[in-house]
Design goal:
Strand content: under 5%
CATH architecture of the largest domain: Orthogonal Bundle
Structural class: mainly alpha
Radius of gyration: 23 Å
CATH class of the largest domain: Mainly Alpha
Transmembrane segments: 12-37
Number of helices: 10
Pfam families: SLT
Number of strands: 0
Helix content: 55-70%
Protein name: Lytic transglycosylase domain-containing protein
Family: Belongs to the transglycosylase Slt family.
Domain Transglycosylase SLT: 114-205
Largest sheet: none
Amino acid sequence: MFATRIAKYARHAASFMLHFAHGGLLVAGLIVTLFVASRIANHGVQGLSLGSFTGDAAAVAAVDEIDPDLMQVVEAAPASAKLSPDLQRVKMYIAKRYQVSAVAVEPLIASAQQTGRSVGVDPLLLVAVMAIESRFNPFAESPMGAQGLMQVIPKWHPDKVDVKSDRSAMFDPETNIRVGALVLKEYIQSTGSIERALQQYNGSSDPAAPYASKVMAVKAALAQAARSGGRFVGA
């Protein structure tokens, strides 16, 4: 009976941790899971040594006694981290199209959603730029020094990011997306056109605007995926 109960609560703990992984709180989930497992184990050992086990009530009590500080970490998760239904479908499309983990890409899309809304840039445009620039690799770096998801060159934007104090700043997804969004917003305002802004973002003056065309094609595919339930639509 004890082994059955331990297995039952271990499954609940694993499911609990997966929930936090999807929300970008892997560390907090791991801490809470280990804490719960430890308390369950302790109750189990005590019960065996006394020749009895108090059953489900003991396990529930162990969960109730979780350190309040740990629960504060869990509750600190921003509600904005939850994807809209459309972006949930976009997430599944990206996972299939670019062969990346849906779990890993979810916080990136959530950051694009939140940043896009706060800065005033279409989140799908930010996601499309990430797809073209890095294929959702937050550690990408070009020979020219472009870094992270949106391949921002830090030395060109010292007003938006201080890499002298933190040389790894642009490899933080949220920072990279925020800076990339601010750059795009600035270029859109100065050029009056998303297409021209994208060409400037790419550092190209080609009148044919091939870079802008690629980004806008991906954005269109993402929009179609959002409408079609996330089914693979090519692009």
